[in-house]
Specification:
Largest interface: A-B, 25 and 21 residues
Number of helices of chain B: 0
Order of helices and strands of chain A: EEEEEEEEEEE
Oligomer: heterodimer
Radius of gyration of chain B: 13 Å
Strand content of chain A: over 45%
Number of strands of chain A: 11
Distance between the termini of chain A: 36 Å
Largest sheet of chain B: 5 strands, mixed
Helix content of chain B: under 10%
Radius of gyration of chain A: 13 Å
């Protein structure tokens, strides 16, 4: 089944403890992206990747890192999580990178709580 | 970068047609218009995409006037399960904004 898989679905951690949220897609998509969703703020883009080894900052990249060493994987890394990074995170992919108008496919989300 | 404006919320009843309009005054020549639907705690789901005039699929219709400065997502005969947040995106930047919260009542 074609899908975007995020793990874990739920994560509770403490301030400063490094964590990684994994994202994998099995559709050979070029473009991958991370979003965070907070009440009243909608979905905001953190980082995106146009292809392997090509990543760039979105609108809210502070406190996050990403890597794209393989086409299928795009992990989100929080080196030193803080409580303001408590949020619902979504990974997405699409067949081709912008400016091509390929619809995004989203994962089921990771709810992160940092205490 | 094309900025979009949508109503914050809309209410409807089962069986009615719902039209959600998105304003995008500075849409670029090559920009497409894409709509997504999101249920609570789930990732957004692609609904429909168009460039001009009218596009229809099994879920919705998208109406785009000649000047392309706005677009209207039309959901025919909504049901309770259409209660969700709907996002209008324009162009390559893939900015979601806060969307339109649609509540369908019995």
């Amino acid at each position: 089944e074609a899908q975007v898989t995020q793990n874990p679905r739920y994560l509770i951690t403490v301030t400063g403890k490094k964590l990684t949220v994994t994202c994998s897609q099995n559709m050979n998509h070029e473009y991958m992206s991370w979003y965070r969703q907070d009440p009243g703020l909608g979905l905001r883009q953190i980082y995106y990747s146009m292809n392997v080894e090509v990543t760039d900052k979105g609108d809210v990249p502070e406190g996050y890192k990403v890597s794209r060493k393989e086409k299928r994987n795009f992990p989100l890394i929080l080196e030193s999580p803080s409580p303001n990074q408590t949020s619902l995170y979504f990974c997405a992919s699409s067949p081709r990178a912008p400016p091509y108008n390929s619809p995004l496919h989203f994962g089921n989300g990771t709810r992160l709580t940092v205490t | 970068l094309a900025k979009t404006t949508q109503p914050i919320s809309m209410d409807s009843y089962e069986g009615q047609e719902v039209n959600i309009t998105c304003s995008h005054n500075n849409i670029a020549t090559n920009d497409y218009i894409t709509w997504y639907q999101q249920f609570p705690s789930q990732g957004p789901r692609f609904i429909i995409q168009g460039y001009k005039t009218k596009v229809t699929n099994e879920v919705a219709s998208l109406f785009i006037p000649a000047d392309r400065k706005s677009s209207t997502l039309s959901l025919p005969r909504v049901s309770l399960s259409d209660t969700a947040v709907y996002y209008c995106l324009v162009g390559r930047k893939l900015v979601f904004g806060t969307g339109t919260r649609l509540l369908v009542s019995p």
